[in-house]
Amino acid sequence: MSSPSFLVHYQEIALKGKNRPWFLARLVRNLRQAVRDLGGTVVRSLMGRIEVVPGPGVDPDRVAERLKTTFGIANYSLAGRERLDLDAIAAAVLRDLGAREAGSFRVSAKRADKRFPLTSPQIEREVGGRIGQARGWRVDLERPELVVHVEVLTDEAFYYFGKERGPGGLPAGTAGRVVCLLSGGIDSPVAAFRAMKRGCAVTFVHFHSYPILSRASQEKARQLVDLLTRRQLRSRLYLVPFGDLQQQVVLAVPGPLRVVVYRRLMLRIAERIARARRAQALVTGEAVGQVASQTLENLAVIGNVASLPILRPLVGMDKEEIMSEARALGTYPISIVPDQDCCTLFTPRNPQTKARRATVERAEAALDIDGIVGQAVEAAAVEEFEFPDV
User: Fold this and answer.
1) What is the pLDDT of residue 341?
2) Could you give the CA distance from residue 22 to residue 165 in angstroms, rounded to a whole number?
3) Of 114, 139, 165, at which residue does a domain stop?
4) Residue 3 has what pLDDT?
């Protein structure tokens, strides 16, 4: 194809009614951010679709990599562009079919501008007839080996020979801000990804026990956030020291209740950060019954301390499903690197699986909760991430 471009289609955005222009504008803005380091690459909104034109000398594969990770895209195709002339369109299609071979084919046409004199079925018959005559291929409307797509707009027509699936979802940032409690494990990065896919802008909070333990968990958190930022383009990470807080809990709280108290403190700290960030919800990687702190009883007692909604995108998934999604996302190799995180520090041998709220609150009465939370938020280190990093 001479001067090919990518034709991007969206699906869920098209159902947004009066809000559709706002969602579309955010998707266009996100795409421009995603390709801003690919010199001269242009993003423009067309009728019901978006065109992304690679800059001079830019490898189209690099552009395609960015489209694969931009939420809001249903599918995309490397397309040719031609003037609104049926002879010219058919000639361009035949030229760019090149050495392709197909036992059967069909033409699928869309006429976005109804002022074009031929209807979609007429375009399909005309272009399909010329392809069949020139290549000797058989038309199969049900199960063709090759589909030739033609889309007629107001001033130009596009044609392409296949579609690549996009990530779907809603454009990043359209659903508001949330705060995700990010461990170095497998679950929470997947939970963050799922929140991003629904348009949430995710701020990350990671709890560590340095200098009691090594910096390894902090480095894993940075790597995970760096990878996830490819999906939402900008991220903020709070690194919260938690070791001293755990030592205070060990001195004041009976062993079986400590894990529940740790989790309640983490939620309180995350919520304090969330309110400072004007976030509207918290996100965790919890799944019912996966570990001792995630029984329904414990989830209820732990979640009781937060006044913001707690989103648990993985709540009904099993471990194999989560691991499979982590592999597809690319976080799995990072998550399985051995490290010492705060969850392994001062953990009792027999944690309580069915904690009672009243019992936990009595145990917490020995702690200066407000002081502990304020101290942790004040001590948190903040790091910014951006993609692409130019």
Assistant:
1) 63
2) 23
3) 165
4) 73
Buried b (16+ CB within 10 A) or exposed e, 262-291: bbbbbbbbbbbbbeebebbbbbbbbbeebe
User: What average pLDDT does this structure show over 199-217?
Assistant: 88
**Mean of the pLDDT values across residues 17-45?**
95
Do 86 and 203 reside in the same domain of the chain?
A: no
Residue written as token pair 């041998």: 349
Cβ(109)–Cβ(127) below 8 Å:
yes
CATH number at residue 11: 3.30.2130.30
- Domain containing 244: what range? 177-386
Here the tokens at position 8 are: 């991007």
For 211, counting Cβ atoms within 10 Å of its Cβ (0-12 exposed, 13-18 middle, 19+ buried), the class is exposed
| Residue given tokens 């397309």 in the structure block | 79
- What pLDDT is attached to residue 342? 57
Q: Say how far apart CA 61 and CA 251 lie, in whole Å.
A: 57
The CA-CA-CA angle for residues 111, 89, 92, to 5°, reads: 140
pLDDT at 17: 84
Give one DSSP letter per residue of 173-194, joined into a string.
TSS-EEEEE--SSSHHHHHHHH
Question: Which residue type is seen at 121?
Answer: P
Give the model's pLDDT for residue 345.
56
Distance CA 105, CA 298 (A): 58
Separation of alpha carbons 33 and 386, rounded Å: 10
**223-237, pLDDT tens digit by residue?**
999 999 999 999 999
Q: Are residues 53 and 12 in the same domain?
A: yes
Report the C-alpha gap between 86 and 269 in whole angstroms: 63
**What is the rounded distance in angstroms from the CA atom of residue 142 to the CA atom of residue 235?**
45
Banded pLDDT at 290 (limits 50, 70, 90)? confident
Domain boundary among 165, 188, 203: 165
Rounded to two decimals, the pTM is 0.92
Angle CA 152–153–158, to nearest 5:
55
> Percent of the chain beyond pLDDT 70?
97
**Three-class SS of residue 322?**
helix
Distance CA 366, CA 49 (A): 60
